[in-house]
Design goal:
Layout (H helix, E strand, L loop, with lengths): L8 H5 L7 H4 L2 H11 L12 H4 L5 E5 L2 E6 L1 H6 L4 H12 L7 H6 L3
Antiparallel strand pairs: 1-2
Length: 110
Protein backbone atom coordinates (compact mmCIF):
# COMPACT_ATOMS: atom_id res chain seq x y z
CA UNK A 1 0.00 0.00 0.00
CA UNK A 2 1.27 3.51 -0.79
CA UNK A 3 2.41 5.51 2.23
CA UNK A 4 2.67 9.28 2.16
CA UNK A 5 4.57 9.60 5.41
CA UNK A 6 6.27 7.22 7.77
CA UNK A 7 7.19 8.21 11.31
CA UNK A 8 7.01 11.69 12.77
CA UNK A 9 6.45 14.95 10.91
CA UNK A 10 9.88 16.14 11.99
CA UNK A 11 11.45 12.89 10.79
CA UNK A 12 9.85 13.34 7.38
CA UNK A 13 10.95 16.97 7.11
CA UNK A 14 14.55 16.22 8.12
CA UNK A 15 15.18 12.46 7.77
CA UNK A 16 18.97 12.85 8.20
CA UNK A 17 18.53 14.99 11.34
CA UNK A 18 20.69 17.73 9.81
CA UNK A 19 18.86 20.79 11.15
CA UNK A 20 17.94 22.08 14.61
CA UNK A 21 14.26 22.39 15.51
CA UNK A 22 14.41 26.18 15.13
CA UNK A 23 15.20 25.79 11.40
CA UNK A 24 12.86 22.86 10.75
CA UNK A 25 9.73 24.64 11.89
CA UNK A 26 10.27 27.81 9.83
CA UNK A 27 7.59 28.00 7.15
CA UNK A 28 10.14 28.77 4.44
CA UNK A 29 12.12 25.63 5.27
CA UNK A 30 8.99 23.50 5.37
CA UNK A 31 7.94 24.80 1.93
CA UNK A 32 11.41 24.15 0.46
CA UNK A 33 11.39 20.59 1.77
CA UNK A 34 7.88 19.93 0.44
CA UNK A 35 8.86 21.28 -3.00
CA UNK A 36 12.06 19.24 -3.06
CA UNK A 37 10.76 15.95 -1.68
CA UNK A 38 7.45 15.98 -3.55
CA UNK A 39 8.53 17.57 -6.85
CA UNK A 40 7.27 14.55 -8.82
CA UNK A 41 4.04 14.19 -6.83
CA UNK A 42 0.62 15.76 -6.83
CA UNK A 43 0.39 17.99 -3.76
CA UNK A 44 -2.91 19.41 -2.60
CA UNK A 45 -2.09 22.49 -0.53
CA UNK A 46 -4.77 24.42 1.31
CA UNK A 47 -3.17 27.71 2.19
CA UNK A 48 -3.91 31.19 3.43
CA UNK A 49 -0.50 32.62 2.49
CA UNK A 50 0.34 33.29 -1.16
CA UNK A 51 4.00 32.32 -0.83
CA UNK A 52 2.84 28.81 0.07
CA UNK A 53 1.13 28.24 -3.29
CA UNK A 54 2.51 30.81 -5.76
CA UNK A 55 4.99 28.31 -7.26
CA UNK A 56 2.36 25.62 -7.78
CA UNK A 57 1.64 24.27 -11.25
CA UNK A 58 -2.09 24.96 -10.88
CA UNK A 59 -4.17 27.10 -8.53
CA UNK A 60 -7.79 26.46 -7.57
CA UNK A 61 -9.50 29.47 -5.97
CA UNK A 62 -12.67 28.77 -4.00
CA UNK A 63 -15.23 31.26 -2.76
CA UNK A 64 -18.30 30.45 -0.68
CA UNK A 65 -17.99 26.78 -1.62
CA UNK A 66 -17.76 27.37 -5.37
CA UNK A 67 -14.86 27.27 -7.82
CA UNK A 68 -13.98 30.83 -8.79
CA UNK A 69 -10.98 30.04 -10.99
CA UNK A 70 -8.56 27.26 -11.86
CA UNK A 71 -5.40 27.74 -13.91
CA UNK A 72 -1.63 28.16 -13.77
CA UNK A 73 -0.63 30.99 -11.42
CA UNK A 74 1.15 32.84 -14.23
CA UNK A 75 -2.05 32.82 -16.31
CA UNK A 76 -4.19 33.92 -13.38
CA UNK A 77 -1.74 36.75 -12.62
CA UNK A 78 -2.11 38.03 -16.19
CA UNK A 79 -5.85 38.55 -15.74
CA UNK A 80 -6.65 41.78 -13.91
CA UNK A 81 -10.15 40.53 -13.06
CA UNK A 82 -8.74 37.36 -11.48
CA UNK A 83 -9.43 36.86 -7.77
CA UNK A 84 -6.01 35.24 -7.45
CA UNK A 85 -4.36 38.21 -9.16
CA UNK A 86 -6.12 40.66 -6.83
CA UNK A 87 -5.18 38.66 -3.74
CA UNK A 88 -1.58 38.40 -4.96
CA UNK A 89 -1.31 42.15 -5.48
CA UNK A 90 -2.74 42.81 -2.03
CA UNK A 91 -0.41 40.27 -0.45
CA UNK A 92 2.67 41.55 -2.30
CA UNK A 93 2.03 45.04 -0.95
CA UNK A 94 2.10 43.62 2.57
CA UNK A 95 5.04 41.24 2.24
CA UNK A 96 8.59 41.95 1.10
CA UNK A 97 9.39 38.23 1.22
CA UNK A 98 6.74 37.49 -1.39
CA UNK A 99 8.45 39.62 -4.02
CA UNK A 100 11.17 36.99 -4.44
CA UNK A 101 8.81 34.17 -5.44
CA UNK A 102 9.30 32.36 -8.73
CA UNK A 103 5.94 33.11 -10.31
CA UNK A 104 6.25 36.83 -9.65
CA UNK A 105 9.71 36.78 -11.26
CA UNK A 106 8.32 34.91 -14.27
CA UNK A 107 5.67 37.59 -14.67
CA UNK A 108 8.14 40.45 -14.23
CA UNK A 109 5.90 41.87 -11.50
CA UNK A 110 8.55 42.53 -8.88
Amino acid sequence: DPVMFDGTIRGNLDPMNEYPDSRIWEDRIIQEIIRQEFKDCTVLAIAHRMNTVIDSDLILVLGEGSILEYDAPTKLLQREDSTFSKLTKEYSQQSQHFKSSTAMHRMGSY
